[in-house]
Design brief:
The protein has 419 residues and is an alpha/beta fold. The chain is built from 16 helices and 16 strands. The chain folds into 2 domains: 117 residues, Urease, subunit C, domain 1, CATH 2.30.40.10; 287 residues, Metal-dependent hydrolases (TIM Barrel). A hairpin with a 2-residue loop joins β15 and β16.
Length: 419
């Protein structure tokens, strides 16, 4: 690949300080802002600095004048559930009418309604639906995307979802990290025999997922009426034995032991954390677990937000993600999530920028994403904005002007190149 030189950059955020500080308590200085910058790259970053210091050896390379744009590392959405079929808008309307969870369940709603629709969908139907969602994410500057299974809950349907994710990964240019979430809920056919479903997870699904290399992570929903910490330990020990890394949905609806399990088992991340205790906060910090906060779900449901300010001030690295899913957060707009984090969780702009770049990469065990320096992958999100501070501020529009993935321009204005 030939070299490309981007010039005319008003602000280039390298996240060099965030990397040096491992994403803990990020400040404006940690954003590594280079003003009047230039970036040189092929598949990887070859040089970044002030334009006036651009080495002469690059003077004959292809140059693009960005005319005052803001450049960030490609954005990272580190927690999504976007492979699903069906529509749950009626549930949202019922919530707006103050109907209870039981009312919604009695009307056929809830997670199992998505399971039913996803089971009924063909592979091609799921792929088409999911591809559209991934393209929407890419249009917003997301160059790395985690995608979970979890709406199949049978051997065949979970494998179907993971193979959809595999095909998305093969056919689209962004980095996709697949996560196995077979322990999302107890399927209805095992309502009175949960031990049998856990046996299927441990003896059939996890070994097959690992053998076919269909997932990097194994996730589990630790919560009342879903999976207990003891069940989680049983399932995750099998996952680790088969070479999968661990994530845990923890303390979303109550303090139920998910975060403690994450700390004890060396999980890469603990996600949600709305009801995290002080003891668990200390354990997560000590164990090096990344806290992934999903304020879009609280916004959508009208519930309490995770205490992000407390987590950050105590030194827990925080990532943000959309939690894009059909039941509790139907959006892939990561910048909207950043706005919510600033306005409702009292995070600063440098904190949210770090949370959707460097710390989000850490939540996926990615060491070459989320910051810009010589040798890192050339994933770039280019915003036609006067300053990086505008990104969460002007939340009503998509401010992306261009996107590069591994050095290749895949979006410029409203045009696409996906192969």
């Amino acid at each position: 690949m030939n070299l490309t030189v981007l010039k005319g950059i008003k602000e280039c955020l390298t996240l060099s300080g965030a990397r040096a500080n491992r994403g803990v308590k990020p400040t404006k200085e940690d954003l590594g802002i280079i003003e009047n910058a230039a970036v040189v790259f092929d598949e990887k970053i070859r040089w970044v600095g002030q334009e006036r210091e651009l080495p002469k050896e690059f003077s004959n390379e292809m140059q693009i004048d960005l005319k005052g744009a803001v450049v960030l590392p490609g954005l990272i959405d580190c927690h999504t559930h976007i492979v699903f079929a069906g529509d749950r808008s009626h549930e949202y309307a019922m919530r707006a009418e103050r109907k209870s969870y039981r009312d919604i369940a009695d009307a056929g709603g809830g997670i199992l309604s998505t399971v039913k629709a996803t089971r009924e969908a063909t592979f091609d139907e799921l792929f088409s639906l999911s591809r559209t969602r991934v393209l929407e994410s890419m249009s917003r500057g997301i160059t790395t995307l985690e995608i979970k299974s979890g709406y199949g809950l049978t051997v065949d349907d979970e494998i179907k979802i993971l193979k959809v994710i595999k095909k998305l990964k093969e056919e689209l240019p962004l980095t996709i990290i697949p996560t196995f979430l077979g322990a999302h809920a107890i399927p209805p056919e095992f309502k009175n025999n949960r031990e049998k479903y856990i046996q299927i997870l441990c003896e059939n699904l996890i070994p097959q997922v690992a053998k076919e290399k269909l997932a990097t992570f194994c996730d589990i929903f630790i919560e009342k009426n879903y999976f207990t910490p003891d069940e989680g330990k049983q399932i995750l020990e099998i996952a680790v034995r088969h070479g999968l890394k661990i994530k845990i949905h923890a303390e979303q609806l109550s303090n139920f032991g998910g975060a403690s399990l994450a700390a004890k088992m060396g999980a890469i991340s603990a996600d949600h954390l709305e009801h995290l205790s002080d003891t668990d906060l200390a354990s997560l910090k000590k164990s090096g677990v990344i806290g992934v906060l999903l304020p879009g779900a609280a916004f959508f449901l009208g519930t309490a937000y995770p205490p992000a300010r407390k987590f950050i001030d105590h030194g827990l690295p925080i990532a943000l993600s959309t939690d894009w899913n059909p039941g509790t957060c139907m959006t892939g707009n990561l910048m909207l999530i950043s706005t919510i984090a600033c306005s409702q969780m009292k995070m600063t702009v440098p904190e949210v920028i770090t949370a959707i770049t460097f710390n989000a990469a850490q939540a996926l065990s990615l060491t070459n994403h989320g910051f810009l320096e010589q040798g890192t992958r050339a994933d770039l999100a280019i915003f036609g904005s006067p300053s990086y501070e505008c990104l969460p501020y002007h939340f009503s529009v998509n401010q992306i002007s261009s996107v590069f993935i591994a050095g290749k321009m895949i979006r410029r204005e409203n045009t696409w190149e996906t192969s």
